[in-house]
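Run log // design_07
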């Protein structure tokens, strides 16, 4: 039974006070990660002293200084001289290191892999390093039963490295010295690319073990995607075959048959861009069955007058296709007794909190099997929306789970900016809202606090749908920003685009700003009519509007991106020159 690592806990709580310990960084996969390890010299060998550098001692904050065990009498030296001596003697450092992971101790050699790169550290004694002597290094002692815990130790070390990388990058991104930030972002990009390549390598290795004739076939749409990627990357037949575990002859056959049509085509697009939904086919076939005397021309004209514009050939093709089953009824909204129904803007507000992961996830292999839900591992986002118009009234970012006082301050700022106070405030039963302080705050402002029904679908579905849109938009970013100001700008851009440019089906294709401010809907403006002979008095697709100018106009589409964000498009149509 191994002893409890009390000396490690003492060192982590008070760095620099525990004897024979030092803060170090483990280099794994080419990435240096700052980890606090217990460095224990072998019995009989000289002890080590803490080798951390205090902030402001003249060395750059992003420098990596090797933590070298002492091989002689202790002495004090200038930090710059000590750093140079430490780098020069790194190759001769072979003191064993005891790494405690999940209650077990694992000894690792320090030569060439342990580096010191702590960020903020408490006050420490000056750096003291002496040059190694010529005496032989002590033998490396391996603990008993170490092969039984190698796999779990590797998982622990990798998780510690991820935790330390996130902490170090968070510290560096918040420094006044802006020269550190490009290096942090570049390191994150390299790490993400390396992890993606490793995922592909593992998947390819699994598929390579399957005989070629037993591997699943690519679908027609996947074959087209492969050829598109080949054209974009400029790959040869051999390169394409090697990447996708094919033969060059197979790829060549796809290229030769790329323009084939029909249901048995070897290569085709994912879905035709001009394909109508099945319910349109059902309408056409049902109309033909009820009125067999109508031909395809007359059916197209009748549907066009009703607001559904279809070509004559399209109607003829739909009539000849196999019958389509009747679509099922749409889901009905059930109004629950006692539910609050918003009747005007600023009548009912919804408030909620969510987390946005900065990395790829929270899982770690030790209890409680999750990282702390705080910065630099995730952001906490608070959102307030108006239920009547679906407008985002306010959004903010917190480093950690906010308290009730912080949420009340945020709601106060939102109400001052809007110049209005809601009559009802709906939230979940989180600790920020399910407390006496929040109830008293609402009573002083004549707000009735209400809570979403537990276990019932749709109780706070409106704000949950907004949170889903927000997270999907954030996922389009290459990396989630580590700076609060940068991340707050990203979520504010999403909220602005959501209010101004995103139409809502529940609002009859209007935007939240149009409903909140009472503006005329953009869908009611005069429309373009590209068909030259289309009668001006004939109805168009709903909503029915007047024709702008003369029929037969040529239209050009212009797509802009809000603040250059590809996931926030703004589409406009204008007359072509």
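design_07 sequence
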């Amino acid at each position: 039974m191994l002893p409890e690592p009390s000396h490690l806990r003492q060192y982590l709580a008070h760095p620099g006070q525990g004897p024979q310990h030092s803060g170090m960084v483990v280099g794994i996969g080419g990435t240096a990660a700052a980890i606090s390890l217990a460095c224990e010299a072998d019995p009989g060998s000289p002890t080590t002293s803490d080798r951390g550098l205090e902030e402001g001692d003249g060395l750059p904050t992003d420098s990596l200084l090797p933590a070298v065990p002492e091989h002689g009498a202790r002495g004090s030296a200038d930090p710059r001289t000590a750093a140079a001596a430490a780098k020069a003697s790194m190759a001769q450092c072979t003191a064993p290191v005891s790494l405690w992971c999940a209650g077990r101790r694992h000894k690792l050699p320090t030569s060439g892999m342990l580096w010191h790169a702590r960020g903020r550290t408490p006050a420490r004694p000056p750096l003291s390093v002496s040059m190694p002597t010529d005496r032989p290094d002590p033998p490396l002692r391996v603990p008993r039963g170490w092969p039984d815990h190698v796999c779990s130790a590797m998982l622990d070390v990798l998780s510690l490295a991820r935790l330390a990388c996130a902490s170090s990058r968070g510290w560096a991104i918040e420094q006044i010295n802006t020269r550190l930030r490009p290096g942090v972002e570049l390191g994150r990009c390299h790490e993400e690319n390396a992890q993606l390549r490793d995922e592909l390598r593992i998947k390819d290795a699994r598929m390579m073990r399957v005989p070629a004739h037993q591997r699943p076939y690519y679908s027609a749409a996947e074959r087209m995607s492969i050829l598109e990627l080949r054209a974009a990357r400029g790959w040869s037949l051999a390169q394409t075959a090697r990447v996708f575990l094919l033969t060059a002859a197979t790829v060549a056959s796809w290229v030769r048959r790329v323009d084939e049509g029909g249901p048995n085509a070897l290569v085709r697009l994912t879905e035709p861009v001009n394909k109508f939904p099945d319910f349109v086919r059902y309408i056409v076939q049902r109309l033909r069955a009820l009125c067999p005397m109508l031909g395809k021309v007359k059916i197209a004209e009748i549907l066009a007058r009703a607001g559904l514009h279809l070509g004559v050939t399209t109607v003829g093709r739909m009539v000849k296709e196999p019958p389509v089953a009747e679509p099922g009824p749409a889901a009905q909204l059930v109004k629950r007794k006692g539910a609050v129904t918003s009747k005007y803007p600023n009548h009912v507000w919804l408030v909620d909190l969510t987390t946005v992961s900065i990395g790829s996830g929270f899982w770690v292999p030790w209890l409680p099997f999750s990282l702390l839900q705080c910065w630099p591992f995730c952001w906490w986002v608070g959102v307030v929306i108006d239920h009547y118009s679906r407008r985002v009234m306010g959004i903010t970012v917190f480093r950690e789970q906010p308290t009730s006082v912080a949420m009340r301050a945020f709601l106060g700022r939102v109400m001052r900016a809007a110049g209005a106070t809601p009559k009802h405030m709906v939230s979940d039963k989180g600790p920020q809202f399910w407390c006496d302080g929040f109830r008293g705050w609402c009573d002083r402002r004549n707000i009735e606090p209400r809570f979403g029904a537990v276990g019932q679908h749709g109780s706070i579905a409106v704000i949950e749908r907004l949170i889903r849109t927000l997270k999907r938009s954030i996922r389009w970013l290459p990396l989630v920003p580590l700076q609060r100001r940068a991340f707050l700008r990203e979520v504010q851009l999403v909220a602005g685009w959501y209010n101004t440019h995103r139409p809502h089906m529940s609002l009859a294709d209007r935007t939240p700003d149009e409903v909140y401010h009472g503006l005329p809907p953009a869908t009611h403006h005069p429309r373009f009519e590209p068909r030259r002979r289309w009668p001006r008095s004939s109805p168009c697709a709903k909503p029915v509007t007047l024709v702008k100018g003369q029929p037969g106009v040529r239209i050009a589409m212009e797509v802009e991106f809000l603040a250059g964000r590809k996931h926030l498009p703004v589409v406009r149509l204008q007359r072509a020159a």
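The first strand starts at residue 22 and ends at 28.
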